[in-house]
Amino acid sequence: MASFGSFARSKEQRKEIFTPFADTKVEKKCYYKPMKKRAIISVSDKEGIVKLAKKLVDLGWEIISTGGTRKVLNKAGIKTVSVEKITGNPEAFSGRMKTISYEIASALLFDRLNPRHVEEAKALNIKPIDMVVSDIYPFQEVIKNPISEEEAVENIDIGGPTMIRAAAKNYKFVIVVTDKKDYNLVLKELKKYGNVRETIRRKLTLKVFKLTSFYDSVIFQYFSRMWGKEPEIQIKPTKLRYGENPHQKGVFFPIESKDKLAIPHFKILQGKELSFNNILDINASLDVISKIGKEKPATVVIKHGNPCGAALAKDSKEAFKKAWEGDLLSAFGSVVCVNRMVDRDLAKTMTKNFFEVLLAPEITKEAESIFSQKPNIRVLVNPTLKKPNLAKSKDLKFVRGVLLVQDAASKEIKEKDLKFVTKKKPSKSQVNDLLFAFKICEASKSNSVTIAKNEQVVGNGIGTTARVYAAKQALEVAGKRAKGAVAASDGFFPFVDSLKLFKKYGISAIIQPGGSKADKEVIDFCNKNNLAMVFTGIRGFKH
């Protein structure tokens, strides 16, 4: 057998030597090329495949194809070579065995610039396959409907991923196309350069590894759920318009979750695509609505991750008005979440104000029509909002070099948990307001102080470095509405400075975790000034 060097220098054979890439150093090298380049085509989505195959044939390519795809191509008058002819074996086991074979894998994998590989390919009568067009069985679409385990198993593609991974590994010599959107790009490259440039091949190859990793993760998650294991994060990200700021790129990774209020489980009825900040605010709104909206009609207004407005009422319209009026300045451009159906009347009231996102369990057709006149408002629905529950999954935070993991903040403070520590006891209605205010406080960035009255937030001091600053901010927002209201603090009071402010504004009762060295001083101050105070025993920090 001739060596690669003598083979490459043969005048007769030099005619069959070509340079695969016009934009790389590889063009100075060579490998043996058969008279016709070959493509293997096997796709589930047949859209555009006839046009692609016809153009390839016009460019002198030979088409190899499998069952269903081959029927479509042959019906369109495109001559194809069956996979069975290449492999020497028939399709078997109900189609489980088609493209998996030594012959096809070898034709895709051998290195055309490696002398030993070239000589082995000749000796084994392996003819190169220069392109793979395959999109893999749509497992993720099949499992959207209830199916048996057996049906799911049968829809796991083996041959497709094997071929495209082999082609991707040998991308310098094999063009691999997994996305029908790339058909025209590949044809344009072939017409202009006679081949596909390496820069484009790399892009096509990255799509392969992205697809196969996502595909395997979907299968893994499906059977994990079926067999009672914890769901895992998906690999495939979705692009966002940008991150927290326009100069930052952003993506999100949907997580397969049994949580019915998981954001991917919402149906988007209208509006621009969600932004990074929208998603953070949506998550915050779900946290708050789950704390306060289990029984009564509720509305939550979120701005920059914090509740600037929240209210309970006898009906949804009243709840929205109370929540919005809690802090009119902050509510502008917010995320609004409700736990009852939005009808025409409520939609008309809502659209008089400017907000970016609405979450609701249901929206009537009449309400949809009203919102359609405000096309930039994102409207998302999820029936589970009628009976929202706190998330039970772990809370994860990434920092530099560390992944922080903690239990979800799912502890719900009830009246039986309260410790009444002052001489003056709060009334029943005050206890309701105290519990309501503490839930809002827990959902706000610490340090925070919440002022509430009649199950309406009238002031929220958020994310301060000193508790007295939070108290001052909340009371300034509340103004005259603070008289007779209650105050909640997510942490204990180390000094009586905040309480002096509460007294000045006319606060009637206070709820806080307790546990400070200053507790006795704080309680004594309340007793002297006829203030009611209760301890929760639970701190409500949220960083």
Describe it.
There is one protein chain. The protein is an alpha/beta fold. The protein folds into 3 domains: 4-223, Methylglyoxal synthase-like domain (Rossmann fold, 3-Layer(aba) Sandwich); 265-386, 3-Layer(aba) Sandwich (Cytidine Deaminase, domain 2), CATH 3.40.140.20; 415-535, AICAR transformylase, duplication domain (Cytidine Deaminase, domain 2). It is built from 21 helices and 21 strands. The strands form 5 sheets. It has a 6-stranded mixed β-sheet. It has a 6-stranded mixed β-sheet with strand order 16-21-20-19-17-18, sandwiched between helices. Strands 3-2-1-4-5 form a 5-stranded parallel β-sheet, sandwiched between helices. Helix 14 runs parallel beside helix 16 (344-350) and helix 16 packs parallel to helix 17 (365-371). Residues 1-32 have low confidence and may be disordered.
